[in-house]
Amino acid sequence: MNRIKEIIRHSEHTAEVVIESPSIARSARAGHFVIIRFNTECPRIPFTIVDTDIAAGTFTIIIHKGAKLTDLINSLEVGYELTDLLGPLGQAFEVKNYGTVLCCGDGVGFVPILPVMRALKEAGNKVITILSEFTAKTSCLRTNAERYSDVILHSDNEADTLSLVRQEVERSQPGLVVMTGPTHMMKSIAESTRGKSIPTRCILNMVMLDGVGLCGICRVMVDGQRKLTCIDGPTFDAHKVDFDQLQNRQRHFV
């Protein structure tokens, strides 16, 4: 049974959707995602599994305006049964105690980092989060970020985010940097941490169709090898990702 159990509408553009699916709730880990087709008019869309409740047999996704799904949000109803749901997909994030972890993202791209932040916090890490102005204005993203962070830093734009990352790398000496968001921003951050030998992970948001490695649309070059975000990711070593090639591929799907 894959049924919508609860809808928390934060605005006409953003909603948390709680879906009843005991098998996914039991199996999902931070970093996993699902692919959902809500109806015959809707494409198959990947959504990060933001939270799970094993006792209730549910998992939560966030539908955000960046996916251009405002009409979909308004049409969903509690009790609606999903006939096309696949997951959990992808590889789970490697969660352990790194000491201090620096997390950053931007806008719609911030959603995939939320479950990772929660898992890292529960593993005993000190979590420092950089919130962009756009993300901070979205109540459910801001609230979840505040819940899982020990320190919140606010940035006005991407240049400010990069500056804050560099400052925190020097000041806090994090054991790990985790990032998501625009490709050019992730490339800049990866370049800034490479020379410091600080492990840096990127969570990629890629266009995909099947989610099981057949279509090849979500391919990315990592350490000179072709990887598929749907089955090898969505998390990769940012120091090994070819961001230039990734950005060129993404232009085909704008």
**SS summary, helix count:** 9
Strand/helix succession: EEHEEEEHEEHEHHEHEHEEEHEH
Indicate the percent of residues in helices.
25-40%
Q: End-to-end distance, in Å? A: 35 Å
Strands, count: 15
Can you walk me through this structure?
The protein is α/β, with parallel strands linked by helices. 30% of the residues lie in helices and 29% in strands. The chain has 9 helices and 15 strands. It has a 6-stranded mixed β-sheet with strand order 10-9-8-11-12-15, with helices on both faces. Strands 1-2-6-5 form a 4-stranded antiparallel β-sheet. It has a 3-stranded antiparallel β-sheet with strand order 4-3-7, with no helix packed on it. Helix 3 (114-122) packs parallel to helix 5 (139-148). It starts with a strand and ends with a helix.
Care to give the gist of this entry?
By secondary structure, this protein is of the alpha/beta class. It contains nine helices and 15 strands.
Q: Strands, helices and their partners?
A:
Layout (H helix, E strand, L loop, with lengths): L2 E7 L5 E6 L1 H6 L5 E5 L7 E4 L2 E3 L4 E6 L6 H6 L8 E6 L10 E5 L9 H9 L3 E7 H4 L2 H10 L2 E5 L2 H15 L3 E5 L2 H12 L5 E4 L15 E4 L2 E4 H4 L2 E3 L5 H9 L3
Parallel strand pairs: 8-9, 8-11, 9-10, 11-12
Antiparallel strand pairs: 1-2, 2-6, 3-4, 3-7, 5-6, 12-15, 13-14
Helix pairs in contact: 3-5, 6-7, 7-9
